[in-house]
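Co-fold these.
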Amino acid sequence: MTPPHLPGSPKFRRRAEARPDEVLDAALELFVRNGFSATRVEDIARRAGISKGSVYLYFPSKKALMEGLVRRAITPVTQGALALIGKSSGDPRATISMVLRHLATRLGDPATLAVPKLILREAPSFPEIAEVYKSEVLAQALPVFENLIAKGIAEGYLRPVDPELTIRSIMGPVLAHILLGEVFGLAPRGGPSMDRLVENHLIILFDGLGVAQNPGAEKGARP
Amino acid sequence: MTPPHLPGSPKFRRRAEARPDEVLDAALELFVRNGFSATRVEDIARRAGISKGSVYLYFPSKKALMEGLVRRAITPVTQGALALIGKSSGDPRATISMVLRHLATRLGDPATLAVPKLILREAPSFPEIAEVYKSEVLAQALPVFENLIAKGIAEGYLRPVDPELTIRSIMGPVLAHILLGEVFGLAPRGGPSMDRLVENHLIILFDGLGVAQNPGAEKGARP
Amino acid sequence: MTPPHLPGSPKFRRRAEARPDEVLDAALELFVRNGFSATRVEDIARRAGISKGSVYLYFPSKKALMEGLVRRAITPVTQGALALIGKSSGDPRATISMVLRHLATRLGDPATLAVPKLILREAPSFPEIAEVYKSEVLAQALPVFENLIAKGIAEGYLRPVDPELTIRSIMGPVLAHILLGEVFGLAPRGGPSMDRLVENHLIILFDGLGVAQNPGAEKGARP
Amino acid sequence: MTPPHLPGSPKFRRRAEARPDEVLDAALELFVRNGFSATRVEDIARRAGISKGSVYLYFPSKKALMEGLVRRAITPVTQGALALIGKSSGDPRATISMVLRHLATRLGDPATLAVPKLILREAPSFPEIAEVYKSEVLAQALPVFENLIAKGIAEGYLRPVDPELTIRSIMGPVLAHILLGEVFGLAPRGGPSMDRLVENHLIILFDGLGVAQNPGAEKGARP
DNA sequence: AATGAATGAGGATTCATTCAT
DNA sequence: CATGAATGAATCCTCATTCAT
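Predicted complex below.
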């Protein structure tokens, strides 16, 4: 009764139950590359190795793919970073260094980077999704950092800066580095650069660009 | 309904020569808000106060609007910033401060910010446009900065850091600040924040987050 | 989950032979309610308590459900009514009254009414099905009636009318009554109305709406 | 500048401003013939002599065609019939005859008949449209008739029947006649039959099927 | 120059039907 | 027998582009 498996007849294969995840993987790649609007559901299907109609077995609409993408990405992203910070005590510079290196490694992974890139692109079109990301990721992470810095200041480890604004001074360079590379393909001369970027930045961040040991004598004070 | 076009009537005359610019203004706003694909030519026309068909009198296609947008934005952006840097001499920190403050002011203007935001969104879909922006803006500006930093190091004003990577430490926080605000509506507590961000960042950038070589001796220990 | 099919277990056994009928029941209800095109095979399956694929074990296509529906409905409908008429003799008014009351009762049953309603809806899309109904039901029943009336006229019981057209005068009001109720939910004030409709109609049908030859002499003039 | 009108290039014709009505005409015919679901917008467009997209210039959705169809049909249908009845006085039989003949003529016109047929088909799928028809047409017309009959009874012209149910006895035969013809193609032997149907029905309606002048003597009273 | 009606290719979504399990 | 995942043709609707006026 069962017809022989002709190699030329690839219809009606049934694959693992990981299908929804494969669809999301395909959608993520295409959404990031071409944008949500310009990506066709059929392309997502083809990339996931299924038919157009099958996408709708797992997701009720194209938009639901966006939502699924963000939902899937939220938990792992946050947990890893925050767990590291929670253990911190003493000089916050060690913690900041560790977190920045951790983040740099994580964001070096294209798969991890993809969702933030997608949200960056599509936030104006999907305000509620950006809102989810904001409340689930940023609203979790930023206060932790803020406290870390505030505590560092209170304990005398750090200069009395504005903690909330300082977060941008800590993280911003990594963001700029990624964006230059991703958007314009601009990588510094000299191979894999994220690690070097982080180390260079940590020096500036903690000790400053200036050379003078004696502040106030800066102007024209050099031998 | 339409009154005859009297050449001497200064009110409500439509200057035909300004039309393409008005179309670009409309396109820019909508592209940034909704993305290129999701913006309809008819909406651009309506916002520009003309008819759908008239858009095609000035631009041969929707894509040409993108190109026109980027071409129009390139010259003014670059010139302003680079002119300031070219004149610099002596301690580069003054120049860096000035440029950063200048940039912060410029990017505080939504009209100036719009094109970079658009390119950020649509770069994957319009690689050649991103390429134009890269070669016309970034490839002009980054080396100037790099030289500024390199010279500052050579002249003993700055710590011996990697100039190319350090640009990211200088500019990144401003980028991060803008993105948090634009994408997620995240502004720090306490009103207009870009100026405060820049001042806070300049302190960290030049002097570092750390207070001294000997933490713990910090509390009230400075003479 | 499914218990083994014990032949001796009378509860919750699914009688395989009854399955097609259950599918038809489900299809009939949905076809009447939503129309053929707007009814999904999956909904029929769910209502019949089986899976989508199983529908195709009993019926080769969706259209075959329509055909099965009409075929199933034909025999019982016709036989009941015609048997009554065949036995008639003498004054046909008694027979007409009986048949009309019988028909009204039958059509008061939603299950009996369903197929005619379905045919009414879908006849233009399924001409061959309408044709079947016409030849199997109408072509059987109408001539019987016609003869009944013609005989009544010949025997002097009835006014010399056109028998073929008169069938419409006999049956039409019942049809109108059903349609008003089914299509527009329009029922007369005062509860269950089909019986009253029939009795009211029989009076008019046999004796006429008019009171006498000499209107005006009518008020209280009958002995 | 204007290219010659090549007969083979039928693009971009512009026609009269009667376009929406032509679209409705096309939609009505196809909806009645094939049902709403089974009719493709493209078919409507082709029949109206325009392109698929142009349908959406006039109607926002396929469903809006249904609504437009019913809205367009409502006014003329009601007005004609009710105007006739309003003038009635004296023996209502004259009025009833006139209305019935008028109605029969109107419904003999396929264009007039189409919308009621459509509503009959699609009422279950468009309850709100059926509701409109009910309130705009039936709720206007039925009470007028009811009053006519009630007045006829009170004034001694008519037998004391239930006015509301009697409407069905008056109208039902016409409905039945139309339905037999439309749904099953069943026309009586002997040419154009609607007029004959009405005349035959009016005799029965006013004078009854029975022959006896002396009620009560019916059974077995014939010479 | 300006308009906007008209076009039709293109894309999201649905659903009858198939068949591996 | 029964299932329901998978398919892809079919259909609604959108919108960039054209061109008669």
